[in-house]
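Hi U.,

Before I forget, here's the chain from the pilot set. I'm dumping it here mostly so it's searchable later in email.
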Amino acid sequence: MLPELLAKHHGLPNVWGEGAIFASSGLDGATSVASGFVATYARNRYGLLFHTPQRRFLDVELGVRGTPRIATGDVLAVESQKGTLLMAYSAWHTLVGSAPAGMFLRLRFEDGPNAAWIESAWVTEGARNHDVLALVEAGGRFALSYGRSADEAIKRAKAGLQCDPWGEAARRLTIYQKVPAVKPVDRERLLKKCVSVIKVNALSAEGAIKGMWSTPDRVPHKDMWLWDSVFHSLAMNHLYPEVAWQFLKSVLETRNAEGMIPHQSGVSGKKSHITQPPILAWGVWENYQFTHDKSALQYALPRLEAYLRWDLANRDRNGNGLLEWLIEGDVRCRSGESGLDNSPRFDRGLTMDAVDFSSWAAMDMQYMGRIAQELGDTAKAKEWLERSQATSAKVHEYLWDARDGFYYDRALDGEFSRIKAASGFMPLLLDDLPADHLGALVKALQDPNQFGTAFPVPSLAVCEPAWSTDMWRGPTWANLNYFIILGLLKHGRADLAGWLADRTIHYVQKYYELYGVTFEFFDSKDQVPPPACDRKGLRREPYDIRRKLDSIRDYHWTAAVTALLLLAER
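Structure:
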């Protein structure tokens, strides 16, 4: 049966890696964030760690050496001399599998006893959340299920034994038939790994979120995030554009009465008090290129307008038409609102006219103008296009430092921050970028003492004293690279855009092949592997996905951006 699956699906991801997410996708039916029934590949092959409030392990002992042949977010197939271990989800609450002869399974708490034997099932009942996991085995098959009681979990597991695990695996793999072929095979495998990450981080409607939505990672982030969702939608456009629209619509539905859209929202209804980069109009417009659904534009435009008006009213303290991020007291996260939480740009705790915020706002105003034009509303189109042009002109006039040939944030007293960060490249997204500014930015991009690192583009120039491998204090992020690539293409530098795209794909692939996951960020000097990078503080051993103290694994926008770059190469 494995040969048939592999023959039908060429180039599937096949690298086992600790921390890779393994869960049922909203593309296949209901999901449940509230349950916490999400697994990741464990440290010991080929076990699973389930992230319920009281975590459990499913230990797997093959007894012989195994070779992963399929390792996606919801199907695992490991070939051995004794047969094939297969695991696949039949529902969000049930994992089914086929076991080779002599394989041993054990269900246990991470920090406590093994499962108890109850009604022909191995059962663990969580004291913290009163949830139950039940494991049953019979005739070379097994099933592991979640329930709110022992009866429910055992009943689901016994029903799972009646499922054909190979049929369930085949059903879960159908998405890869939508993935275009790319060459060589290692890049095809990377693309399908990216699709696997995209799929597993897509969730169904639940609680306060009424439509399909996306998360940066099922564990530890769990919730829906504003600008992340836009990047997720860009890749989903190439698979299921109607789902991509749901991602965006779910974010738009979180706006409050004043128009503000929070940066983080959960199924419980809890929302954050800050916002995030305004790139939703761009996402809506890109989705429209695939759906051609004007009703989506009609739904989105008033919400996009209300949101940008809120930004303009609440994030322009000095009234000069440039926007400032909210600065927080947490020294490890001065500006979570910016999305670049711990960047040295914010170390002084000053409110500043922000080059990235203002550039993204100008870009989104332009896309709102396009949306209004498409809907035949010439007055609104004129308003937003003129606002975009005015904001863009102010970025070039006020945030460009001719002495250094770079864009900086500027304090409200007029002093440049002179912290060279990747945010200074965001004006590349603007149509009216002066030619001499482009030349200076290209020079900085290629300079090995600034941004021309092994894996460009560092979030902070390597010449800055604060440079490190800690999150936004030096590492490279795929989403910022994507903006820079788009900006270079906009201004006729396809050569540099292609170079940067290739470097991005190369390093994402390098570390996927080594660790089996797509990482959140990467050392721009490529001297420290992603698992050894810090994250808002020094990393700790052993690795613990819930602590978030190193580059997060199977990160959604890294997969989404890499997929976009691979598809653009075709």
